[in-house]
Amino acid sequence: MTNLRTSVSVAALALAAAGCTVGPDYVPPKIEAPAGWTEDKAPGLIGTGPEADKQLDQWWTGFKDPTLDRLVATAITDNLDLKIAEQRLIEARAERASAAAGFLPTLDASGSAERQRYSTQLKFPPYGGVFNTYQAGFDASWEIDVFGKTRRAVEAADATVEATNESRRDVLVSLLAELGRDYSALRSAQARLVIAERNIKADQDALDLTHEKFVGGLGNELDVAQAQAQLQTLNAAVPQLQATVATQAHAIAVLLGKEPGALEAELTTAAPMPTIPPTLPAAVPSDVVRNRPDIRAAERQIAGANAQIGVAIAQMFPSFSISPSFGVGAGSLNHLLKDGALQWGAPASISVPIFEGGRLEAGVAQARAVTEEDRLTYRKTVLGAFQEVEDALVGYSTEQRRHASLAAAVDADRIAVQRATALYRSGLGSFLDVLDGERSLYSAEDAVAQSDLTLTQQTIALYKALGAGWQVGETQVAAIADRQTPATADRQTPATNP
After folding, report:
1. 174 with 311, same domain?
2. What percent of the chain has pLDDT over 90?
3. d(Cα 132, Cα 113) in Å, to the nearest integer?
4. Where are the beta strands (DSSP E) in 78-128?
5. What is the signed CA dihedral for 336, 342, 346, 347, rounded to 10 degrees?
6. Are residues 73 and 9 both part of a single domain?
7. pLDDT (mean) for 492-496
8. Furthest C-alpha separation in the chain
9. Do 21 and 82 fall within a single domain?
C-alpha cells in the first residue's frame, strides 16, 4: 500500500501542477490597411453592402450565361485539384484527432501462457522441475500534460486544420477564376471567328467586284491581286482562332475532371461572349484581409507555428506519467480466478532532461524562427492581395476607356468602307482606299472583340483579388467532413491556461 500511496501522491502533485501552459500565447498580427483603393473611381464600381456581398458569393451568375453556370456547378463537384484539397483537409483533421489523443491514457490487454523446466542443479528456488505460468491483465499508461505540451500540440493542430480549410477555399477561388478566364477566351475566339468570316465575305465581294471591273475593262490586274492577297490574309487567321477554341475547350474539360475532348461538341458551337455585370464590387482593403482565404490561411499558419514554440519549450521541462497495471497470474488455469491470483502495480515516474547537447534549445529557436517567417509571409500575402486588387481596378478602368475608343473607331471605319466602296463602284475612287478601309475595319472590329475579352478577364481578376466565390463550396465540404472525420474522445479539449 505504501507504493500505491506514493504513486498516487506523485500523480496528484503532477495534476496540481497541470494547467500551466508554457510558451507564448498567440496574438494575431495587425495590418494597417489603407482606407481605400487608389483606383476605385471607375464607372460601375460599388462599395460594400448586401448587394456587393451577394455578387461576391456567386460572381459568375452576374454574367447571365447558363452554360457558364453549369460548368461552374460541375467544376465544384468534379475538379481534381479541389478533391485533393478536400482530402488534405480530412488528413489535417485526422492529425488533430491524433494529437488530442495525448490527453487520454492508453490501455492495453495482454495474456500469456508459459511452460518451463528449471535446472535441478540450481542452489536457489526453484530447485528444478517443470512449471506452468498463466497471466492475464490490463496495462495503462498516461503522461500528464503538466506544462501544456499536448495542449499546445492540439492548438497547433487546430490551426493547421483551419489553415488547410482556408487553402481549400483558395483552391476554389482560383479554380472558378481560371474556369471563367478559359470560358471567356473560348467565346472570344468564337466571336473573332465570326468577325473574320464576315470580313472574309466582304473581301470576297470586293475581289468579285475587282474581277468584274477588270473583265469589263474598267479595272486593272493590280486591284485583283491586292484583293486576293487581303482575302488570303484573312483566311490565314481562321485556323489559329479555331485552334484557340479547341484548346480552351480542352482546358475547361480538364478543369471539370473530364477527358480533354469531352466538351468539344458542346463548347465548339458558337455562342456570345458573357455579358459583363453593369456593376462590380470594390470592397475596402480591410474587407479583403478578412475575406481572402489565402490571407486567412497565412494567419492560421502563424497561430500554428506559435503553438509549436510552446511544444518545443515543454520538451525542456520534466514529464510525469503513471503506468498502472492490473491482472491475475497462476500456475494453472483453474486458479486464475482465485483471490490470491490478483496482481497489480501503480508506478509513477518523472523524466527530467539534464543534458541534450543543445538539441532542445535549438528546437525552441527553430520554432521561433518558423513563427517569424510565417509572420513575414502573412505580411507579404496581404501586400500581394492589395496589389492584385489595385492592378485589377487599374486594368478594368483603363480598358473601359480603351474599349470606348475602339468602338468609336469601328463606327468610323464602317462609314469609311461604305463610302470608299461606293466611290470605287462609280469609278470615282481608288480600290486602294477600299482595301485600306476594309483592313482598318477588320482590325478595329477584332480589337473590340479582344477588348471585350480583356474587360471580362479584368472583371474576373477583380473577383478573384477580392477572394470571391469560395462560399459556394462550403455545404459540400461540410458533408465530406461529417462523413470522414474520425470519431475521437477529444471533443472537449482542456482549456489552455496561460
Report:
1. yes
2. 35
3. 7
4. 106-118
5. -70
6. no
7. 41
8. 138
9. no
Q: Would strands 325-330 and 319-322 be described as parallel, antiparallel, or unpaired?
A: unpaired
Which CATH number is 117's domain given?
Answer: 2.20.200.10
Shared domain check, 441 and 306: yes
The total number of residues shown for the chain amounts to: 498
Beta strands in 333-422 (DSSP E): 342-345, 348-351
Question: 348: which strand partners?
Answer: 322
Q: What is the DSSP letter of 103?
A: G
- Residues 329 and 254: their CA atoms lie apart, in Å, by 65
Q: What residues make up the domain containing 151?
A: 31-104+147-317+359-484
Q: Which triple of cell numbers denotes residue 358?
A: 543543445
pLDDT band at 345; cut points 50, 70, 90: confident
Contact 6, 348 (CB under 8 A): yes
pLDDT of residue 123: 66
Q: In this model, does residue 12 exceed pLDDT 80?
A: no
- Same domain for 122 and 110: yes
How much is the CA Rg of the chain, to the nearest whole Å?
Answer: 37
User: How many Cα atoms are found within 13 Å in the side-chain-facing hemisphere of 75?
Assistant: 29
Pairing of β 325-330 and β 342-345: antiparallel
Cell 456587393 identifies what position? 52
**CA dihedral sign, ordered 214, 217, 218, 223:** positive
Q: Is there a single domain that holds both residue 55 and residue 9?
A: no
Identify whether residues 133 and 224 lie together within a single domain: no
Cβ-based neighbours of 490, under 8 Å, separated by 6 or more: 97, 100, 101, 103, 104, 154
Question: Total domain count for the chain?
Answer: 2
Query: For 287-331, what is each residue's pLDDT tens digit?
Result: 888 889 999 999 999 999 999 999 999 989 998 888 887 777 776
Q: Are 112 and 134 in contact (CB under 8 A)?
A: yes
Q: Say which residues have a Cβ less than 8 Å from residue 171's Cβ, sequence separation at least 6.
A: 81, 82, 85
Pair (126, 187) in one structural domain? no
Average pLDDT, stretch 43-61?
A: 72
Cell triple for residue 5? 500511496
| Mean pLDDT of the chain, nearest integer | 81
